[in-house]
Design a protein that fits this description.
Strands 1, 4, 5, 8, 9, 10, 11, 12, 13 and 14 form a 10-stranded mixed beta sheet that branches. The protein has a single domain (3-381), classed as 3-Layer(aba) Sandwich (UDP-N-acetylmuramoyl-L-alanine:D-glutamate ligase), CATH 3.40.1190. It is 35% helix and 21% strand. By secondary structure, it is an alpha/beta fold. The chain contains 13 helices and 14 strands. Helix 2 (75-85) crosses helix 11, helix 11 (330-343) packs antiparallel against helix 12 (348-362) and helix 12 packs across helix 13 (374-381). The two termini are 21 Å apart.
């Protein structure tokens, strides 16, 4: 059965089950008005985060490899790059940049993806840094899972502190959406303060504020542990309109109790939706919460779905099976498509489908950022499959 047929079958099944569709009973209530996005501004989207380069040996483990591809990445940058390259939006990133050859390589890819940079520059001392961080990640294969580890020693982005960016000047030109994430928040004692400073400036300028929890246990273990993670992330999320995070992110990152109902499978949305009431109770500023649902059958075979809660109502994508080439960046791919839907005036249901479709397509490419076109995303979101186009 083709992907398109599976999507159509899933859509048909969902239409016959209204309890799993949009406009179900309202779950929680957000404080104040509903989510509202500016219609026009100089920038559609501004991200704040760290740029990294990911070394990818493909399916060969690092202990046996002799060659690597280099991918420019960063959870926050990935969203800005995807929105610019695939969705044709005007995006920018505020970040650290080191003036040395690795920095030049990364800056070149930022330009190539069409993202405007706002850099805080640092000079490398030729020996110790500061550095642009390296991430090491093989792809795994079949029953062998991918393995990710980091070298973020003396990372330039970890040095960022309040006052490093001219937020008044950046937001003064007009910005519709501001985004950051939990990976950047984990890097140092000061990065969370920069995030909050940026969020407060965004709020004052009338921009929507989003945050991807992106809980990474290895990073938070090195940054003070789980208790500090919860304290830092809760302080940030108080300023957020749109939150991206799965059950594990909500539990480990925000200390939310587990779901009231047991999930029947990884694609069962009931467990995620049962947690929303607690999230909104703790953070009444929240206007939307979204995540992907993924069941991993093997490294290269995943079941894939997505769900969102927007202004008190729940929405759910179809489900599909993915043949995965490179899973890294799939979650950011979903977030990018979801944000695009909301920025472009689509309904929440359509925004979820666009995110689901773009995230699925992104797993078919090497690297962390998109190679998809908007036409491909729309086609898959509405039931298109992998039939050759002649």
């Amino acid at each position: 059965m083709s992907r398109g047929e599976r999507a159509k079958r899933s859509e048909s099944r969902e239409r016959s089950e209204p309890t799993k569709r949009r406009a179900r009973e309202r779950v929680g209530e957000s404080e104040g008005r509903s989510l509202s996005v500016k219609q026009e501004a100089a920038l559609d989207f501004l991200a704040l985060g760290a740029l990294v380069h990911r070394l990818d040996p493909g399916v060969v483990p690092f202990r046996k490899t002799s060659t690597c591809s280099v991918h420019v990445s960063g959870g926050e940058f990935n969203c800005a790059a995807n929105l610019a390259d695939c969705f044709r939006m005007r995006t920018a990133i505020a970040t650290a940049m080191v003036e040395y050859p690795i920095g030049d390589l990364i800056a070149g890819q930022v330009r190539a993806m069409g993202v405007t940079p706002y850099y805080k520059y640092y000079t490398h001392d030729g020996v110790r840094g500061p550095n642009m961080a390296a991430v090491y990640s093989d792809r795994g294969f079949g029953v062998r899972a991918p393995i990710v580890y980091y070298n973020r020693s003396n990372e330039a982005a970890a040095r960022l502190k309040p006052g490093d960016f001219d937020w008044q000047g950046i937001f003064g030109q007009g910005v519709r959406w501001f985004h950051s994430g939990g990976i950047f928040a984990s890097l140092s004692e000061t990065t969370s303060d920069v995030i909050i400073e940026g969020m407060q400036a965004a709020k004052a300028a009338g921009a929507v504020v989003s945050f991807d929890l992106n809980y990474r246990e290895k990073l938070w273990r090195a940054a003070g542990g789980a208790d500090r993670a919860r304290d830092v992330l809760a302080r940030i999320v108080k300023n957020v309109d749109v939150l991206v995070g799965n059950e594990e992110d909500l539990q480990k990152g925000l200390g939310m109790p587990g779901p009231k109902v047991a999930a029947k499978s990884k694609l069962d949305s009931s467990a995620f939706f049962s947690m929303i009431e607690r999230v909104v109770e703790h953070f009444p500023n929240m206007k939307a919460v979204a995540t992907t649902l993924r069941e991993v059958h093997s490294t290269n075979r995943h079941a894939w779905g997505a769900v969102a809660w927007v202004d008190g109502r729940t929405y759910e994508s179809p489900a599909c099976d993915l043949d995965v080439y490179d899973r890294v960046g799939g979650g950011d791919g979903f977030a990018s498509g979801f944000f695009y839907g909301l920025l472009s005036g689509a309904s929440p249901e359509e925004a979820v489908r666009l995110g689901w479709a773009h995230g699925a397509l992104l797993t078919t490419f090497p690297g962390d950022t998109t190679m998809a076109t908007l036409e491909e995303v729309r086609a898959f979101a509405t039931g298109g499959g992998a039939r050759i186009q002649r």
